[in-house]
Design a protein that fits this description.
Layout: H1 2-21, H2 30-41, E1 46-49, H3 65-77, H4 82-88, E2 95-100, E3 107-113, H5 128-131, H6 147-163, E4 171-177, H7 186-190, E5 200-206, E6 215-221, E7 225-234, E8 238-239, H8 250-261, E9 272-281, E10 287-288, E11 291-300, H9 303-323, E12 327-336, H10 345-352, E13 361-367, H11 374-383, E14 387-393, H12 412-428
Parallel strand pairs: 3-4, 3-5, 5-14, 6-13
Antiparallel strand pairs: 1-2, 2-4, 6-14, 7-11, 7-12, 8-10, 9-11
Length: about 425
């Protein structure tokens, strides 16, 4: 095992830097999907893309046609084959890859997210991707959450299975998921049915909580259910000095909603969150604004608490519209669920990772915050009797996730691949009657 990881390390660094330099936002990951798929094809995986990989109708928060067309054309210019673009057209990005050993055993599913963020990456020499020449070539788009590393880890695990297939049993399903940011992509893959007969589900994340390289958390707790809302207010424009009485100020509706959303009472049953992340309105000081746009999210420790926050948010937004006599449109563009890792997996991971040259410490559980749409996948597996977990892989974090200077230590990549591959080996020594 150590020899395989050692020989793979240079390739892991190359893949990570390639994906980092070409980041793509959710449902526009055309080049990313293509590059992942071409590697997997070379390793004899069965590849499913477009509507073969996900339930297209279950997607939310899809970019408009103009944006999708632009990025499809860009992907074509970057060398993506027409046959791939036809299947991915309309933002049906991401892929599922399966490998069946042909021998009875567990069905193991692994999820790796592939999208980037709308952030302008730092060009300061102190930022390692800049100093080493692999910073983003796409304006105002950046891998600022480690998904470039997650893709790389998934490819490393896939190559391990290909090279060791004669020593393995069972079936493997890799879900290279689009649009994790905003909670938009996992439900579409889940609804396609990939997870119904899965015995074990593994996902993970680089960082989130700062830990030293070589430290792995076997499970996490604290991810919140969440709902993402886009809001538009429609009023009437008018001259602010000569005819103010005929105007209906959409900006006032949006600003009133923004302030009062933070007044939603906290709940005695657990943690809740609300944030207004974007507000756009107005065109000039003497014009009453007739349009306003907001991006809002709420979160809750449980589905009940998230629903509580969502309903209060909708009430406040609609009331703000009524107060200033504007019309309001609320669109849900993303969501996640609460999730609980299967505790029995902890001992398996600890046992599997003994005597590793790369893994120095396994902790049973890490406390996290934020939200994850892998929750849909985990909950689907557990609903059908399988077990699931979400792991963390330690790295130093000089800057937080979603920051222009975000980066991670590339030494975490072989640690994560070693963890996944050792767990797979552990799962191969199983009781056929055990799920």
């Amino acid at each position: 095992m150590s020899k395989f990881i050692h020989n793979l390390t240079h390739e892991l660094t190359h893949w990570r830097r390639m994906f980092h330099a070409y980041p793509e936002l959710g449902f526009t990951e055309y080049l990313t999907t293509y590059r992942i798929g071409k590697l997997l094809e070379g390793w004899d995986y069965s590849i499913f893309i477009g509507e073969d990989a996900l339930d297209s109708d279950a997607r939310v928060g899809i970019p408009n046609t103009e944006i999708l067309t632009h990025f499809e054309q860009k992907a074509k210019e970057q060398g993506v084959e027409d046959s791939w673009l036809r299947k991915m057209a309309g933002g049906n990005t991401g892929l599922v890859a399966t490998f069946d050993t042909g021998r009875p055993g567990k069905h193991i599913a692994l999820r790796f997210d592939i999208d980037a963020l709308p952030i302008k990456e730092s060009t300061q020499p102190s930022h390692t991707p800049t100093s080493k020449g692999f910073n983003s070539i796409n304006p105002k788009v950046m891998h600022a959450c480690g998904h470039d590393g997650h893709i790389t880890i998934g490819l490393g695990v896939a190559k391990y299975i290909y090279e060791h297939q004669n020593q393995l049993v069972g079936k493997f399903t890799f879900l290279f998921q689009p649009a994790e940011e905003g909670g938009r992509g996992a439900l579409a893959m889940t609804k396609k049915g990939w997870l119904v007969d899965v015995d074990r589900f593994y996902a993970g994340h680089i960082g989130i909580e700062e830990m030293s390289v070589g430290t792995v958390a076997a499970t996490v707790k604290g991810f919140l259910a969440s709902t993402k809302l886009n809001v538009r207010f429609h009023g009437n424009a008018s001259h602010a000095g000569m005819n103010p009485e005929t105007g209906k100020n959409a900006l006032l509706s949006a600003s009133s909603a923004s302030i009062h959303l933070y007044g939603i009472p906290r709940h005695s049953k657990g943690t809740t969150r609300v944030n207004v992340g974007k507000l756009e309105a107005g065109s000039g000081r003497n014009i009453i604004p007739d349009e306003a746009y907001m991006e809002v999210e709420v979160r809750g420790e449980t589905k009940e608490l998230n629903n509580y926050m969502t309903e209060h948010a909708k009430r406040i937004i609609n009331s703000a519209g009524s107060m200033h006599d504007t019309n309001c449109e609320i669109t849900i563009v993303g969501s996640t669920e609460e999730m609980d890792c299967s505790p029995s997996i902890i001992s398996n991971i600890k046992h599997a990772c003994e005597n590793s040259d790369y893994i120095k410490n396994i902790i049973s559980e890490a406390s996290v915050s934020g939200s994850e749409d892998a929750s849909y996948m985990m909950n689907e597996v557990q609903k059908h009797g399988g077990k699931a977990t979400y792991m963390l892989f330690g790295t130093k974090l000089d800057y937080p996730h979603h920051h222009p200077f975000f980066d991670f230590q590339e030494e975490v990549l072989p640690v994560a691949v070693d963890t996944f591959t050792r767990v797979i080996e552990q799962e191969n020594a199983y009781n056929p009657g055990e799920r």
